[in-house]
Amino acid sequence: MKIIQNRKKFWVGVGGLLLFSLILGFWFSPWGNHRSGLERVDQLFNQIAKNSTYFIPDALRLARKFEGTTIDFGIHSRWPGDDARMAQVLQANQLSATLLGDGRVRVKGDLGEMGKSASRDAELLFKARESDLRAKYGGNEKEGIYYWWLAFDGLTRRFIQENRSPEADFTRFMTTRVLEPAYNFAGIETKSIGENMGKVAIFLGFYLFYTLLYGFSILFLFEGLGIQATKSKKKKEA
To answer: Which of 3, 111, 119, 203 is within CB 3.0–4.6 Å of 69 for a Cys-Cys bond?
Structure first.
């Protein structure tokens, strides 16, 4: 019994898979500045993604709406020692922060001013001004943003408990739209998609070609072996 039913389709499929493998190997191999093609594409899309997550001006506008809103809550830290470091960050921004001895920090101050201070720190990290954050807090430049996140996350839970939706929405906005992007995209340069539309179109076109190459290669290989997907025949009723 012949294994290969259609030699032309079989070898087209084999050739397509070989080409696919060669491209894959080249794509993962470092070239130029010791970076692979995958790393270059990943960097570009991270830069574009960072540019689309810049909500700090919106946070500053929202913070002005909560100027005069006084907070006085005990906030839980996540890990031992986080309470003391969070208190130091808050105190460095003219907020009252007292250790309660049970892993909580009692935070007192103006919610709007707190939001503006955290937004300004996030701006420093977002705009690659890490040295300013190190001078302000010492240690790793991302730590200050992390402790701001702990503080606003704790406030969100307390506001939810007290059914204060506007305040909870604001503090949640601070954690998800301001502090998290600044922390996660630290050290990455921002680029707009408009200025890099050509590169994006080339990469997406390549991805489409590459996907189709693999799919059709498998299809031709199987058809060359006589393996085809067919609909099952309907059974006739007796």
So the answer is: 111
- pLDDT confidence band for 230 (50 / 70 / 90): low
Q: How far apart are CA 8 and CA 4, in angstroms?
A: 10
Per-residue model confidence as pLDDT tens digits over 47-74:
888 988 999 999 999 999 999 999 999 9
DSSP state of 194: G
C-alpha 76/C-alpha 190 separation (Å) is 34
- CB burial of residue 133 (10 Å; 0-12, 13-18, 19+): buried
Gyration radius from the chain CA atoms? 28
With CA atoms as reference, report the closest residue to 88 among 137, 38, 129: 137
What average pLDDT does range 29-56 have in this prediction?
83
Tell the burial category of 199 from Cβ atoms under 10 Å away from its Cβ (0-12, 13-18, 19+): middle
Specify whether the CB–CB gap between 105 and 98 falls below 8 A: yes
E-state strands within the chain: 70-76, 96-99, 104-110
**Residues 6+ away with beta carbon under 8 Å from 128:** 187, 189
DSSP 123-177: HHHHTT-HHHHHHHH-S-TTHHHHHHHHHHHHHHHHHHHTT-HHHHHHHHHIIII
Instruction: For the chain, give every domain's residue range.
Output: 7-49+217-224, 55-184
Comparing CA positions, the residue from 45, 43, 15, 40 lying closest to residue 29 is 40
∠ at Cα 139 (135, 142), nearest 5°? 90
Please give the biggest Cα pair distance in the chain: 87
